[in-house]
Amino acid sequence: MRLEIEARDGMARSGVFHTPHGAVATPAFMPVGTRGTVKTLDGDDLACLGAHMVLSNTYHLMLRPGADVVRDLGGLHEFMNWRGPILTDSGGYQVFSLDAKVSESGVAFRSTYDGSRVELTPERAVAVQEDLGSDVAVALDVLVGLPAARPVVEAAMQRTLRWAERSMLARRREDQSMFGIVQGGTDPSLRAESAARTAELGFEGYAVGGLSVGESDAERDRAIEVVVGELPEDRVRYTMGLGDTEGMLRAVARGIDLFDCVLPTRLARHGKILTPEGDYSIRRAEHARSNGPLDVSCGCRTCTSYSRGYLRHLVQTGEPTGLRLLTMHNLTYTLSLMGAMREAIVEGRFERFMASTIERRVSAVSGESLA
Ligand SMILES: [Zn+2]
Predict the structure, then answer these.
(1) Catalytic site residue 89?
(2) Binning pLDDT at 50, 70 and 90, where does residue 370 land?
(3) Is the pLDDT of residue 332 over 60?
């Protein structure tokens, strides 16, 4: 599994990430299929929308239906009828947001499904992801909530490194690549050390963890710059949980290749529409009699076939079809943004593209349009 870089523009780069289930054009966005499905969509829908790769959650699938069940039903691709590449996260993010007990061996928590006590170690996280059969597994890391004192952040970062080493040793499958996770909070020296030492372990790609947790744009930019400076050029760089337009543009400008986020799909289920002119709520009364599409510049099925008035009616009455159609639009918006970024990088105009995209959204928002 390798990353072929095809174009560079400043620090931004565009290329192709090859996996056993196909190629992913980068920079790429992965829709999130938490429990083995992107809510309201199926595998065929995702293919129609032009998604290249999806993310699924180790934590949820190991508890329900169980990784062994997924394995016995042919693995995650077969199970969810998605034939493209899949990345599974390590489960760490979900586990640490519960009231988890962390020790050197791993982390213990209570299942959100039935309250039973579950243990996740770096080795178990690898075994579970190998059962799921994703193309890319992610090593289990230690998360700390920010802001936190430097010694706390450093201890978590050091333990993450020890867990990364154990994860590497636990690997059995040769058709699955593994990404290590860089931690270190917003402290540039800790980030640099974490990135350099994780890179020494020789992962096939690197995730920047612990971002999008309330840090400022400047802090996040700096953390990404420091990390990217320590990572090998020919490996994928992935910021976990980042998926807003401005955030992804700023990260791509600093050399990031891969994203995932629940934002586009979760906002859709709340009636919030993403557009190049800014975001708005379809729930607002002014849309009740609108015959226009959600976004005049969008070519998705929702925008070509349905009016704002109809979609607002579906959302207001709680019809599942409404959530599905809005999800399809928001994913189309996000995937199109990635395509436009790739094009801008290839054509050597990424900086201008980023400035005009942000400017357009900001002016649209200040000129009203945001709910
Ligand atoms: Zn649309």
Answers:
(1) yes
(2) very low
(3) yes
- Nearest-CA neighbor of 10 among 206, 256, 340? 256
Question: How many A from CA of 293 to the centre of ligand 1?
Answer: 8
Distance of alpha carbon 127 from alpha carbon 114, whole angstroms: 22
- With b for 16 or more beta-carbon neighbours within 10 A and e for fewer, the 266-303 pattern comes to ebbbebbbbbbbbbbebeeeebeebeebbbeebebebb
- Looking at the DSSP assignment, which residues form a beta bridge with residue 14? 7
Q: Are 88 and 19 in contact (CB under 8 A)?
A: no
Is 135 known to be catalytic? no
pLDDT score at 118: 93
pLDDT digits (tens, 9 = 90+) for 212-251: 888 899 999 999 999 999 999 999 999 999 999 999 999 9
21, 52 Cβ separation under 8 angstroms: no
Burial 14-52 (b: 16+ CB within 10 A, else e): bbebbbebeebebbbbbbbbbebbbbbbebebbeebebb
**Residue closest to 125 by CA, chosen among 77, 81, 180:** 180
Catalytic residue among 9, 45, 89, 187: 89
